Amino acid sequence: MNTNIQIDWQSIDHVFLDMDGTLLDLHFDNHFWQQVLPMEYARINGLTVESALASLVPKFESKQGQLDWYCVDYWSRELDIDVMRLKYKNPQKISLRPGVFELLDAIKKLAAEPALLTNAHRSVVDFKFDKTGLGQAIDKIHCSHDYGHPKESPAFWVRFSDTVKFDPARTLFIDDSEPVLEAAEQFGVKWLRSISAPDSRQPRNAPSRFPEIDQFSDIFN
Question: Which of 52, 100, 170, 211 could form a disulfide with 96, with the two C-beta atoms 3.0–4.6 Å apart?
Answer without folding.
Answer: 100
